[in-house]
Amino acid sequence: MMARRLVLAAFALVTATSIAQAQPSLQAPQRADVGEAPVEVVDRYGGEILLADLAGLSVMGFGVASGSDGVVVAGMLVSGLAPAAVHVAHDHPGGAVVSLMLRPALVTAGAMAGAAMATCTEGEFLCGLGEAALGAVVGYGVAAVVDAGVVARVTHRSRQRVIAPQVAVTRDGVRVGLGGTF
Fold first, then answer.
1. pLDDT digits over 134-151, tens only?
2. Cβ neighbours of residue 129 closer than 8 Å, sequence gap 6 or more
3. Which of 12, 75, 119, 173 would bridge 60 by S-S if both were Cys, CB 3.0 to 4.6 A apart?
4. What is the 3 state secondary structure string of the chain?
5. pLDDT tens per residue across span 106-137
């Protein structure tokens, strides 16, 4: 029951920090001035990805501290699924797929590299387990940094806002106003 509440709280935290349409990103969108042509806008949300990772790791840490295997598993689910949920909230489903594949792949590769670096004697019980765990943690860190720094970026095109004065002279008079594109 407590594990379910922690998972719901972690997802609520991630969802509250990743509403793309309601909250501006930490960095202002970078716009190129190109006249009246469509402008390429880049929105970055890597900080939200790192917050989602932190939420999952916090739940896992709480589970380890309290000795609850269920809470640890819930934290693993949050740290695996929450970054993908942030990508979906920013209308970037491709980033969600990459995020879902990146973490398990780099954690596994890190664990394998760590285990390969262990120096074991013949018949030693659980030899290389510490090295594999350290490699897995490094792999998770690399996955989180790559996801936040490279994948958590959406590029879209929008028209540049233009306001122009308008004057119309007719037989009945003169009309003056403002027109534009928004």
1. 999 999 999 999 999 999
2. 115
3. 75
4. CHHHHHHHHHHHHHHHHCCCCCCCCCCCCEECCCCCCEEEEEEECHHHHHHHHHHHHHHHHHHHHHCCHHHHHHHHHHHHHHHHHHHHHCCCHHHHHHHHHHHHHHHHHHHHHHHHCCCCCCCCCCCCHHHHHHHHHHHHHHHHHHHHHHHCEEEEEEECCEEEEEEEEECCEEEEEEEEEC
5. 999 999 999 999 888 888 888 889 999 999 99
181, two tokens? 């594109």
Q: What is the pTM of this model?
A: 0.65
Listed by start position, the domains of the chain span 2-181
pLDDT per residue as tens digits for the range 25-80:
445 445 444 455 667 777 889 999 999 999 999 999 999 999 999 999 999 999 99
Q: Please report where in the chains the tokens 């510490």 appear, as a residue.
A: 130
Residue 114 tokens read as: 């760590």
Pairing mode, strands 173-181 and 38-44:
unpaired
Distance (Å, whole) CA 22 – CA 90: 11
